Amino acid sequence: MRIDAIILRELHLPLVRPFETSFGVTRNRRILLAEIRSEGLIGWGECTAGEHPFFSAESTDSAWAAIINELGPMLASEAPEHGGECQRIFRQVRGNRMAKATLENAIWDIEAQRGGISLSRLIGGVRDVIPCGVSLGIQPAIPELLAIIEKELAAGYQRIKLKCKPGWDVEVFERVRNRWPGITLSCDANSAYRLRDADHLVSFDAFDLLMIEQPLWHDDFYYHSMLQKRLQTPICLDESIRNRRDALASIEMESCKIINIKLGRVGGFSEAIAVHNAAQERGIPVWCGGMLESGVGRSHNIALSTLENFTLPGDVSASARYWREDIVEPEITVSPAGEIAIPDAPGRGYEVRTGLVERLTVRKETIRALELVG
């Protein structure tokens, strides 16, 4: 496909409510969108990097620089036939996986449109609906958390994930379990604990959690393996899994029993599919994590979640949980059964509200292939 232009935008979107994790509070999202124009078609990608390099080494500003200065010109000078070629095109640039995913996922979108099929079918998806869970940030007090859980359960969500950290864990789990003994409950530490906390983490086994997500260091397999030997509760790795090799290493070392796949964290659909396949071949279930995406990134997560081994409810929830007004239509909604129906229109299946995107844009830059030739 000929790349006619790559348009990178930064949008500012305020969250409906602040979202707190072990490494900070997010109230507003600086979202990078890539619009790739190719032979009359438009593909959209979203960068999932945070405003600061806290979840990963990437940030909104570093991703912008990587796309404008390196990745965008590389892609604009090529004519990729499919999204899988982006890994070859970007091979000289180390890391910067969220920046790479921004562009690669847009190419997959264009490829699906060219073929007249949905993105989910293009990548090998097998589901017509996906099960949905919610991720709930740390709250000012436990009663406020309980009220939110009650609301989300009434909305049909099939799994409740609680962000946790030292001082916001055991008492919270106990209160939630006493109130709802039968719900599917998990927790996410975002690397808030250390191996010295192992005895404390073992106490989590009393709460029948589906998983403990990334309790230790963000780049670790070894100590997670030591911890998993002491835990009955499955460890799920998130930040540690950057690619297929990491997935294979963590499985071989028995560092986890579940893997969270995030498109941005692994660099786009190509590597996400490879991680999925590696886990499936070894009997390790996976699920799709969220990064406070707008409807563009959320639509990519929906497509990814249709792959066969996504057997656990992911963080792909309704637009209205995060945004007063999303930038796609139709707005992403969750059924009373806690499911999202998979669109069958060519590409991602959700139209971008370009007028709203333009109004929300605070900076914009265009890369054209012809300019590179000159």
Question: How does this model look, in words?
Answer:
By secondary structure, the protein is α/β, with parallel strands linked by helices. The chain has two domains: 5-115 and 354-373, Enolase-like, domain 1; 121-351, Alpha-Beta Barrel (TIM Barrel). It contains 14 helices and 15 strands. The protein has helices at 60-76, 86-89, 97-115, 119-122, 142-154, 170-179, 198-202, 222-230, 244-252, 263-266, 269-281, 295-304, 354-360, 369-373; strands at residues 5-21, 24-38, 41-47, 129-131, 134-136, 160-163, 185-188, 212-213, 235-237, 258-261, 286-288, 328-329, 339-341, 351-352, 361-368. The strands form four sheets. The protein has a seven-stranded parallel β-sheet with strand order 5-6-7-8-9-10-11. Strand 5, helix 5 (142-154) and strand 6 form a beta-alpha-beta unit. Helix 1 (60-76) crosses helix 3 and helix 9 packs parallel to helix 11. The model has no long low-confidence stretch (mean pLDDT 95).
What is the H level of CATH, i.e. the homologous superfamily of the largest domain?
Enolase-like C-terminal domain
Beta-strand portion reads 15-25%
The tally of beta strands, per DSSP, is 15
pLDDT average, as an integer?
Answer: 95
Give the CATH topology of the largest domain.
TIM Barrel
**Any idea how many domains?**
2
Assign the CATH architecture of the largest domain.
Answer: Alpha-Beta Barrel
What is the name of the CATH class of the largest domain?
Answer: Alpha Beta
Give the end-to-end Cα distance, rounded to a whole number of Å: 20 Å
Helix content: 25-40%
Low-confidence stretches: none
Question: What is the chain-wise order of helices and strands?
Answer: EEEHHHHEEHEHEHEHEHEHHEHEEEHEH
> Helix tally?
14
- The Cα radius of gyration reads 20 Å
Overall 3D form: globular
Oligomer type? single chain
Mind describing the biggest β-sheet? Answer: 7 strands, parallel
Biggest sheet: strand arrangement: 5-6-7-8-9-10-11
- Broad structural category: alpha/beta
